[in-house]
Design brief:
The chain is an alpha+beta fold. It folds into three domains: 99 residues, Alpha-Beta Plaits (2-Layer Sandwich), CATH 3.30.70.100; 83 residues, DHBP synthase (Alpha-Beta Complex); 56 residues, no CATH class. The strands form three sheets. Strands 1, 2, 3, 4, 5 and 6 form a six-stranded mixed sheet that branches. It has a two-stranded antiparallel sheet with strand order 7-8. It has a two-stranded antiparallel ribbon with strand order 9-10. A hairpin with a 5-residue loop joins strand 7 and strand 8.
């Protein structure tokens, strides 16, 4: 039986979008061996199999993309076959000068993660930083390319055993989701007063904040890329106070 080995170099929005686990899945489905890795040049894939299986893999590579992935360029080149290769592997990323990839923008929480957050029996119940390869922060937390956890602002949060198992499982939707976290190992929520004294944490902090806003208070909520000033938009007094503090008192105020 004759074998071919083909190399694909892909650029576009192909890092931080679940592209490598996607490649792993279609490689397994098409019974090809080889490797996939992130690099500054893009995603580099090498596959080896009989010609028909290589053709099927190439079709799936563009026809079954993950929801957030976008291919800008795809280059193919035949390579010498390798003896005794029996598996398809995801390799560690390689670094270099410059880059030819696009990082996904921050993406709203997907339905699967929302379901996790709404399930009282799920470890991520009401955990506001829940995400997976199909959603969550990307661009805002990225410090350099290739897009890997050590190159993001999540580097200081060491994965717990459960999150690491998800992160390292190619068949899990959180495989190499760089912001992956849970209440045990990820970022937390806390509420402080004007003197920076902590008043509450986690769910209690959210509930206390809602109470304070309903009472007419103004708060600054730290987000991924800065702070959001919030108040009760249905309270004329609260909105006027916020406008005064922002020196926007001359703006027209309409509350219906």
């Amino acid at each position: 039986m004759s074998f071919l080995r083909r190399r694909y170099t892909i650029t576009g929005q192909v890092q931080g979008v679940g592209f490598r686990p996607f490649v792993f899945r279609i490689a397994t489905e098409n019974h090809v061996t080889g490797t996939v890795r992130n690099s500054p040049e893009g995603v580099i894939i090498e596959v080896q199999a009989p010609p028909e299986q290589i053709q099927n893999f190439g079709h799936d590579l563009t026809a079954k993309l993950p929801p957030l992935a976008q291919i800008v360029t795809l280059e193919q080149a035949d390579r010498p076959t390798l003896e005794k290769e029996t598996d398809f592997c995801i390799l560690h990323s390689t670094a270099g000068q410059g880059n030819s990839v696009l990082i996904s923008p921050d993406v709203a929480t997907c339905e699967d993660c929302l379901a996790d957050m709404r399930d009282p029996d799920n470890p991520r119940y009401r955990y506001p930083f829940t995400n997976c390869t199909n959603c969550g922060p990307r661009y805002t937390i990225t410090r350099s390319i290739p897009y890997d956890r050590p190159a993001t602002s999540m580097a200081c949060f060491e994965l717990c055993d459960s999150c690491r198992e998800e992160y390292e499982n190619p068949l899990n939707r959180r495989f190499h989701a760089q912001p992956n976290a849970c209440p045990e190992c990820g970022p937390q929520v806390w509420l402080t007063d004007t003197e920076d004294s902590v008043q509450a944490k986690n769910q209690e902090a959210l509930e206390q904040l809602a109470t304070e806003l309903a009472a007419g208070k103004i708060a600054a909520v730290k987000g991924l890329g800065g702070f959001h000033l919030v108040c009760d938009a249905c309270s004329q007094q609260s909105v006027l106070e916020l406008r005064t503090r922002k020196i926007h008192g001359a703006k027209v105020l309409r509350i219906s």
